[in-house]
Amino acid sequence: MDQTSTLVKHIVEAWTQLQTEQPLVQCITNSVAANYAANVLLAAGASPAMIDNPFEAESFTTISAALSINLGTPTHEQMQAMQISAQTAQRTNTPWVLDPVGYGPVLKWRSDMVDELLQYNPTVIRGNASEISTLAGNQVLSKGVDSTLNSADVYNQAKVLLAHAECIAISGESDFILSKELDAVIQINGGSYLQPKVTATGCALGALIAAYCAVTTPTIATIAAHTHFAIAGKLAFKKAQRMGQFNVAFMDYVHSLNPDLIQQYADIKILEI
Amino acid sequence: MDQTSTLVKHIVEAWTQLQTEQPLVQCITNSVAANYAANVLLAAGASPAMIDNPFEAESFTTISAALSINLGTPTHEQMQAMQISAQTAQRTNTPWVLDPVGYGPVLKWRSDMVDELLQYNPTVIRGNASEISTLAGNQVLSKGVDSTLNSADVYNQAKVLLAHAECIAISGESDFILSKELDAVIQINGGSYLQPKVTATGCALGALIAAYCAVTTPTIATIAAHTHFAIAGKLAFKKAQRMGQFNVAFMDYVHSLNPDLIQQYADIKILEI
Amino acid sequence: MDQTSTLVKHIVEAWTQLQTEQPLVQCITNSVAANYAANVLLAAGASPAMIDNPFEAESFTTISAALSINLGTPTHEQMQAMQISAQTAQRTNTPWVLDPVGYGPVLKWRSDMVDELLQYNPTVIRGNASEISTLAGNQVLSKGVDSTLNSADVYNQAKVLLAHAECIAISGESDFILSKELDAVIQINGGSYLQPKVTATGCALGALIAAYCAVTTPTIATIAAHTHFAIAGKLAFKKAQRMGQFNVAFMDYVHSLNPDLIQQYADIKILEI
To answer: Which InterPro entries match (chains A, B, C) (predicted)?
Structure first.
């Protein structure tokens, strides 16, 4: 069995485990993604809870199987909750995902918070090419919260971020995942050009990575979540090319993914770092 | 006419009244449910307004026909609004529904607020089996905001809560409604196993109970709202078995319910307490 | 070429320009509309970002091509962000749209803020008939956030508001747009009676006006956004008469509008003021 087939086998196992365990995933996320990310997690097999206040953050992270922190539309109370939950996750060895939405000099308040959250060692950092490149220390002209760079051009820059996390995931036309464990970059193809046209798909992907982290290693979790989305996006686009129907079809396939579809459609390449 | 047929007749009347009056329903709800609950109320015939700040809470509750309070993702400002609006509702005899999302020792901040809100005598308390059981004084291992108990096993425990409210509603595979007025438990069947897979359906149901409370008695309102959802869920599942399409079909049937469908599909049993 | 044909030609040009420029639009909006407005902007061709905290408001407005401010469910932090962003937009000549949701004596906190925001000269003010009439100084019995008046009865009252903005837009069964530039009222027909049944369509329309303002004059932008929605609503209703499917079809047509559809379905009348 070659390395790619082994990865696909692990993805199938992770998906199966997700259905069995239905892990509780705490999401501190933005107002755009809250409903969508919760539905994606439920469709994929996990149990989401959007607990994002500082007064319940510590006790809730303690009972959660994983945590997802997304800085899309932060409030003061959410910011406090993020710090408490990230710290608690580190202390209790709960896997957690950091999604530094809009990281860069224009959005300084959240970017300072992201810098601070790095000390709690996120299990996975995921973002688009602009965010990851800027977080890796490069100067990037971003356009709001959407990327101006290609994921393929950025993954080499992202290596330095492996000092903070087990995996770095860069989403784009192809997704690239840097894995400390494998000492490699995994390229995942699939999806469709319509996917970034549906708001909060990236945010929901971060939450899904967290869900998978509750049932497998960070590397397999990150690859599995991206593959889950890439297949759903590809199949949805076959069925519908307009945004309303594409969105419905995408949720259908996030829900109806299964081992056969994973084996048939997973499109993964292992690259050297 | 037997008791069940009489109830169905009252549900039809309540539904008709809802279309006629289109009552204004104030919802203080969570970030996951805000859009969904508003669409459910509009589809069902009511007029929703998500006014959830403490500075407008009193004046808005005063002009509202009903109030729905949901503690899914509370903020400090929302908590203040909840207190003010609940107090105002009690003072002005405006019916109001309390949905104690996640009630239990892990989520203490909201649970303390729920305890406090009980003094303003909610018209209806609705929740899943774990929440209602815990609120009734039992020790329950909950899993985030989803239930770990069956609704059928809990309704006997819920009797004590009738000290605070006219009706207690427990949603689950079957729904159980304890009515002070009828001195009985009403069991409502329908829906589908996919319904809890769509996030915020419980929260939206709480808002719909409030809407019906604006046009009929608390008991009929609670039964009517649950029947509305049970029929829509059953018919939607006939049409679509995947989450994206199910969600669309569910909203279609919430919208297109009518007296014929109610008479044909209402599945109600009256149990002794 | 008559005046109406000229307008349609300008709408086509504006739509084309929107696809080319994909302008960054900052939205400070409510919890009900956040996801929906973002999807509408993406479907229509723009690039939305829901930056609504006071700490990043100034720097983000500075790089945005347009700004949309909506007072649906304001928080303290959002209110501060609104002031900062409106002031920044005025200073940097960035077009911005004000949507005074629920304006009136019952909702005083937001209404005071709307009065204050007027000093920063919004490019466009849009609302339903009740909101615009009240903002124009009339006493109106509103029902929550929905209108109790007809748009056709109100546009004469709205003239006084042209002291504050380039355009005043009143949505309803027909939409009416007062233009300072044209010294005329533009009536736009289309849509469907189901459109107000989908929550946040008005809020999303405000955001879409802002998007068009980034690529054309305030008058053309306001007419183009209303026409975009009127056509999508009309075509969606042809395809689906229930709320769930209508909502999906509406998003499909917001996404797939094109010059041919604009020329075929635009229904615009120019009235004297």
So the answer is: Hyethyz_kinase (IPR000417), Ribokinase-like (IPR029056)
Query: How large is the average pLDDT for residues A13-25?
Result: 98
Asked if A196 and A143 touch (Cβ cutoff 8 Å), the reply is: no
Cα(A117)–Cα(A85) distance, rounded to whole angstroms? 10
Residue located via tokens 């060895």: A93
Is A247's CB within 8 Å of C49's CB? no
CA dihedral A70, A71, A72, A78 (to 10 degrees): 100
Helix axes A108-117, A76-91, angle to 10 degrees: 10
Beta pairing class for A47-49 and A66-70: unpaired
What residue ranges in chain B does DSSP mark as E strands?
24-28, 47-49, 66-70, 96-99, 124-128, 167-171, 175-179, 184-188, 268-272
Tokens for C84, please give them.
């900062």
Entry pTM: 0.97
| 3 state DSSP class of A60 | helix
Interface of B with C in 60-119 (CB under 8 A): 60, 62-64, 75, 77
Q: Give one DSSP letter per residue of A115-145, joined into a string.
A: HHHGGG--SEEEEEHHHHHHHTT-----BTT
In angstroms, what separates the C-alpha of C169 from chain A's closest C-alpha? 26
Query: Which candidate from A144, A196, A243 shows the least CB-CB separation from C251?
Result: A243
Provide the token pair at A259: 């081992």
Alpha helices in C50-178 (DSSP H): 57-63, 76-91, 108-117, 129-135
ipTM entry: 0.96
Q: B125: Cβ–Cβ under 8 A, 6 or more apart, which residues?
A: B97, B98, B99, B100, B132, B135, B161, B164, B165, B167, B168, B169
CB atoms inside a 10 Å sphere around CB C271: 12
Residue type (1 letter), C193: Y
CA A132 to chain centre: 13
CA distances from C85 to B126, C64, C69, C120, C137 (A): 41, 10, 9, 10, 26
Kindly report the number of other CB atoms within 10 A of residue A3's CB atom.
13
Find chain B residues with C-beta within 8 A of A250's C-beta: 244
Do the Cβ atoms of A190 and A225 come closer than 8 Å?
Answer: no
Exposure string over B68-77, b if 16+ CB within 10 A, otherwise e: bbbbbbbbbb
**How many whole angstroms separate alpha carbon C272 and alpha carbon C176?**
12
Nearest Cα to Cα of residue B177 among B273, B254, B85: B273
SS3 content of chain A, % helix, strand, coil (to 5): 50, 15, 30
Q: Is A14 annotated as a binding residue?
A: no
**C184-230 pLDDT, tens per residue?**
999 999 999 999 999 999 999 999 999 999 999 999 999 999 999 99
Whether residue A214 is annotated as binding a ligand: the answer is no
Instruction: List the domains of chain A with CATH numbers.
Output: 3-272 (3.40.1190.20)
pLDDT in tens, C50-65: 999 999 999 999 999 9
- CA neighbours within 13 Å on the CB side: how many for A87? 12
In this predicted structure, what is the pLDDT of residue C54? 98
Instruction: Name residues 127-146 of chain B within 8 A of A (Cβ).
Output: 143-146
